[in-house]
């Protein structure tokens, strides 16, 4: 199967899995359930589910099984976007080409939508899976909860707000992004590996790959924020510079940032060497992350 | 041991368990970690941990083991208070006798503190426990995540906002509170029972008890909001009437609300009959919930 077909297939399965896992609109509180569906369905590149599936493919894991951690991880990602767009945070009005949740609904609803999506992620991941040892499944919950917390994604968000207007070193910027974007991307990869009953060594090696991909993703995001248009990005372009946020582009300039991205990409590919051709989807996905336009 | 001594003991252990589970202030992001400690430590009646420990006592469960679900449940409760106090929600400035989180810090920090506490609750509950079967532990995670979600606590919060100024029936008010307060109180009881490897029948019976206690807790809360003082409550008194929220008192009047509380209390005691004297702490706790002044 061509990579683009594989990617469409995973994106469609993820849409379907999200659709099935989300509460229908009608049971109370219907406005929150409507808003949860509004933010979760019909958009997004689904990078984290793609990473989870591509990693599971190394170990020949069934896609039905991978849908569960892929969806849980995507829910954590979506909730973080909803909260990050709130007026007290990044105060943004556009996301995935649509008005943000608090604009389309209201602030209280957006707050509760985020809270409920986080709980739902852990709810679906804790339903017993026959194919996986319960102890292994607990480890998966631990990986996701740790990645989502104050030393992972939320910690990165906090740093992101704290450093506005500051001049960071590359090491400091990297530390922030390892938490903000990297932690959840790493979780997506590790959960796919756990589904495949991966050995501790394989998980360690895939962790190295995920760390490079997380930073790579952020460098490209920073470049796109400078070079992309709002229409193509589906979110407000040029916002980092406007908000005086330190980015790879503001620290290094575009040319050096692109060179750094190429270095990261090479290291990411290298980290997959032990898996040979079984990691072909992860190789393709790494290239896609660099070549994407939004 | 006298009930009051037992209660102090559990409150102290809970404080210690929270203190140990929370990240120290110094690792980054220190302002979020400081704020997490500010909201979680040094206060609160710890009703949910008390319920978890009292239920575990029926089955002779070690307190060390019960500390884990008790702390996780309390973290979910604390995060819900932090978010509920935000300007876009109840907009309150006082909680447990101290300025609320967004007043003492800022809105973005309060938002992230709540998000991080929710993740931390699932993080500590997913660390492998030797004393409990992993499959049973997964069930505990599922109970807590479901109780925290859009058909549990968050759903109740959403309804609570939606019904301001509306005239509800008692049945509608009850439905709202079963979600808003009841879901997490029920989870605290059920997690204690799961730690004791309780049978499905015992869990079912304790569920009945927990449902009565959840409503009882809310009826007393409504009465205290009318009759209590801000100084004793540690939160703004008289707020329900001011915000035109439907309560048991506004629907029934104080006298009938107190009669309803006595009915609920009797039913709660009755639900414990199968457990005989092993449930003595739960009996005492039910009485305490009615007699409390804050």
Name of the CATH superfamily of chain A: Farnesyl Diphosphate Synthase
What is the count of DSSP helices of chain A, taking H or I runs of 4+ residues?
15
Write down the overall geometry of chain A: globular
From the 3D structure, determine the CATH topology of chain A.
Farnesyl Diphosphate Synthase
Total domain modules of chain A = 1
Rg of chain A computed from alpha carbons, rounded to a whole number of angstroms: 18 Å
Strand order of the largest sheet of chain A: 1-2
Judging by the overall fold, what is the CATH architecture of chain A?
A: Orthogonal Bundle
* Measured distance between first and last alpha carbons of chain A: 24 Å
Task: Describe the structure in brief.
The first copy, chain A, has helices spanning 3-21, 30-40, 47-58, 63-84, 101-104, 107-126, 134-148, 153-162, 170-195, 200-227, 230-233, 239-242, 248-252, 254-271, 280-291; strands at 94-95, 98-99.
